[in-house]
Design goal:
The chain has 270 residues and is mostly beta strands. Helix content is 2%, strand content 51%. It is built from one helix and 26 strands. The strands form six sheets. Strands 10, 13, 14, 15, 17 and 25 form a six-stranded antiparallel β-sheet that branches. Strands 18-23-20-21-22-19 form a six-stranded antiparallel β-sheet, with no helix packed on it. Strands 1, 2, 5, 6 and 26 form a five-stranded antiparallel β-sheet that branches. The longest helix is centred in the N-terminal third of the chain and has 6 residues.
Amino acid sequence: MQGELVFDARPYVCYDAVTSKRIAISLYDSEAADGKIRYSGTFTAYFRCYNPFGRLKRIWHDGDVSESELIHTGVLPAGMKPDIPTAESRNLLLYNPGTERAHTVIRIAGDVGSGLLIRNFTTGQRCSVVGLTADSLLPGAVLELDSAMGQTRIALGEDTSLAFALHDEGYIELAPCTPFVRSVRIRHAAGSNVIASDGCFAAHMEGQFLFLDGWKKLRQITSADMAILSEPADRDGETDTPIVTMNEIELSGDGLALTRLEIDCIPRIR
C-alpha cells in the first residue's frame, strides 16, 4: 500500500510513503449499559519514505498561508506569478519555492524544425529534442520530458510509450529559491535602474530577482545600500519585495513551430 504521508506540523508538505510491515489490528469488546456489545481497537502502522525530501503542495498562495509555511518555504503570493509558458514562449522565468532542485515534466507538441534546445541558464542544464514533427504524434498527444524518471515518452491520456529517439540531450531541473529573503524595502525612481536600500543588499543577491511591477534581475550589487537592475523601474516610490533565485529558461532552434508547451515543477523541501 502506498500514498501521501502528511504531518500535522507541516500540512503543506507531503511524503511518498509505503507500508513496510503488515498492519495488525487488535479488537476489544465490552458490554454497554444498554446490553449491546461495543468494539474498540488499536493498530500500529509502519511507513517507509524512500525519498528523503517532501513535496510542496503548491508554489503560489492566495493569502491562506501559515506562519510556518512562510518561514520554511519560498511560497509567494499568486500575484507575483510570472507569465505561464505558451507555445510561443521563447524566454521565460520559472520559480521553485523549495530548498532542493525541483524536477520538471516538460510537455511539447508541434514541429521542432532542425531541433529544439531548452536551456536553464540558472543551473547550466541543456535539453534537446530532435525529429519531432506535426505528424509524429496523434491528435491530443504530447512528448513528455521527465527529469525525475530520466524518460522521454509520448503520452496520450493515460497511455504512454517511450520515445528516446526524439531525445538528444539532457533534462531540465529548477534551482531552489534559496538564498531567500522574503521582504526588503527598496527605493526606486521612474526611468532609472539604480535602486537603494538601508544596508539590505548582499553579494549573493547579484543575479537574483526582485518583484517591482514584475520580476527584475539584480544585475549588480554595488554596495549594501545600492544595486543596479537589468531594466529601469516604471515609477517612483518605495516597495517591499522578496529577493529570490529564478530560473531563466530559453527555447531556441531553427524552424520551431510548437503547438503546445507546458512545464510542471515538482518542488521539494528538506
